[in-house]
Structures are given as structure tokens and as C-alpha cells.
Amino acid sequence: MTTLQEPPAATRAGVRPRVVGRTGLYALLLANAVVVAVFFVQAGFASNTLIVLGRLTGLYGSLLMAFQLLLVARLPWFDRRIGMDRLTSWHRWTGFSVLWLLLAHAVFIVFGYAQSSSLDPVNQLVDLAETVEGVLRAITALAIVIVVGVVSARSARRRLAYETWHFIHLYTYVAVVLAFTHQVAAGTTFTSSTAAKTYWYAVWGLALASVFVGRLVLPLWRNLRHQLRVTAVVPESDHVVSVYITGRDLDRLPARAGQFFLWRFLTKDRWWQANPFSLSAAPDGRTLRLTAKRAGDGSEALRHLKVGTRVFAEGPYGAFTTLHRTRPDAVLIAGGVGVTPIRALLEELRGHAVVIYRVATDQDAVLYDELRDLAHAKGAELHLVTGPPVPDLLAPGELTRLVPDIAGRDIYLCGPPPMMNAVLGSLRELDVPKAQIHFERFSLAG
Hints:
52% helix, Rossmann fold, three-stranded antiparallel beta sheet, Elongation Factor Tu (Ef-tu), domain 3, alpha/beta
């Protein structure tokens, strides 16, 4: 199609935001690991080897536990640069590292003291719990961490409802408090060095403050400030509905096309449930819009919302934005209802864009009329690709046929996981640089 196009956007120069955010986290963790090692050495080694190893694994387990809190604090600076899905994934694997370090800490300490006292390990553990302040709290914390680790394993996670898993996961905060009080009571660094004691109080204080601010203070402040309400509920098809939301001073809400919120609609039967939905239109400072496909009770209830319903929204979240542009032109690839952030991104993007919309049938093309009109107005190309999941209709050959210069463009990808995995494989075969591929797995956001 030929229409007037916007001037091509300049290629973003300098270090990529995701690299800045990731490097910042790595540098923070490494610097603290070095500080912990220095304080550990300063405290001395007046114990047998097992006890020394137990102390070291305990210290690094504590450090990673505090780092875990930072990863899920939802601090805007990190979230916009890294994305909640990646931060959540790092939190998961850091959690398993914490579990193994704390298990190693317990085993080394118990067997180390048993070696010194000639007690068997079981009696030695009982003796430590009865005679050393904080050890019983540490045992309780370790038990909680083990339970959380077990239910977080993929096989167990698939069998649990999200609400059940989340409720169990909240006990991690109890484990954090118990572990810290154990460290205060029995930790060698606390008893041997004022500087180390100050350091650990600062580490735990900043980690807990990050969670408090990012997960509680910031959402409460934004919702009190913006007073969000439903203004319209528009069925897009038998299975898809759009909800329009307005409020005060929305021009001061730092939301961007491609981001999502955790939406909580304050009705008597759904107020307790938050669902992640992307913005399906670029924020204009007056209205927010989400579009959702019926996939469960939460999304089905959207169709029955009444105008005026109060909304509590946590966010905006996500790094699926134009902040990460590296090239003047772009390819936007959407699958099914994954078109919602793609449609919003197309509205905001500058430069030439090619939109590829993958659906099973024409009837599944959500917001297609809007997308077609927007593509026409922006001078973008729009390709509707229909057909069953097999064979793969977005194989490397088909992508290069639709977009011959695909390796020289930014690619934004959103859709069902199988489709996304297939497209990512095609892009690898086409040697598209990773820095130009932008995607977010919204299923992790809840």
C-alpha cells in the first residue's frame, strides 16, 4: 500500500537499555559478593573446614536471598530496561541457588560441629537448636524455603492453581525475616565487626525497602493519584472484549505502547484477582484501553463490567517498548490476541513498519479493521497469514518473502508460546542479531 510515511527514525546510538539494566544488576551482585568475601576473611577461620564452608555458604545464601527480593520488587528503572518476565525468570533460578546454598550451609554447620563435639549429626542439630539463639528460627526458615522450592518445580507448578502457588510463595517473606534474625543472633560477622553488621543491616534494609516501595507504595500512590474507572466495555467479537479506562492526570502516568498492567476490577466478586493485560492502544494521556480474549473466569468477567467500576492497576510493566529500538525500520509479528501490544506499538513507532499477523482463520483476527486502518495511515505493510499451526507458515523462507530486509530491522514479537518459539527459531536461522529481537513472555507476569 502506498501512503505518506513518517520520516525514518534515527538508529538509537549508545549502549542498549537492556544491557545497561542487566550490567547494573550483575555489577551490584558482584560488588556485594566481594564485600561479603572481605568481611568473611576478616572474621577469621577459628573453626574446622566444614564450619568455615558452612559460614561461607550461609553468607552467600543470605546475599542471594536479598538479591531475590530486588528482582521481584518491580522497580520501574529495572523493569523498563529488562522486563518483568526476565526478572521473574532470574528470580526463579536465583531461588533454587538460595535453596542449595542454605541446604549446604545447614549440612556443613551440623557436620562441622558434630566433628568437633563427637555427637552424631541428628543430636548435634538438636543441641544447636536448644542451645544457640536463632538456630531454631533458621531451621524454620530453611523448611519454608524447601517447601517453596518444591512447589516452584515445574512439575508441581503445573498442578497448582496460580492463587495457591502464590499464597505458598508469600511465606518466603516469613523465611527472609527468620533468616535475618538468625544471622543477627548467630552470625560471626555480626559479632566480630561493626562495619559488617552495618553492611548487612543496609543490605536487608534496602532489599525489603525496594519490595515495600515497588510492590505497595508506588501502586497505592499511583492509584490514589489517577482514580481509574471503567468508561466503556466494547465487545470486539464473541470471544474478545475491549475495556476503556479513564482517570485523573493520565498524561502523567509513565505508560508506553507495548506495556501491560496487572488489572484489578473492584467488583464484589473479582476485586481480589489481578490479571495481566497489555494496552491495546498507545496511551494518549486521556484513556487507557485493554483488549482480552476469553480464556478463563477473569477475562470472561470483563464482558460484564459496568461503566463506573473502580479499577486498581499495578504498573505499567514491561520492556516491550520502543525504548529498545536499534534500527530505523521494524517488523511487528503478532499471533492471535498477542496483537494487542503490537497494535499499540504500531501507533507509536516511527519509520517504516511491516506487520505480520498470524491467525488460524480470518475470524480470529482481533482488531484487524483497526490494524488495517492504522497501517494505511502510517504507511505500513500489513500481512494477514492464516492457516493451521502445522505446517509452520512463518518459516524462514516465508519471513524473507514477506520482509526481504528482515535482518536489517527491529523485530517485535508477541503471541502464543509455540508460535513465538517457532518464529524465534526462524529468526536464528536468518541470522537476525539478538539485539534486534524484542519479545516478552507475558504468561510470567502474573
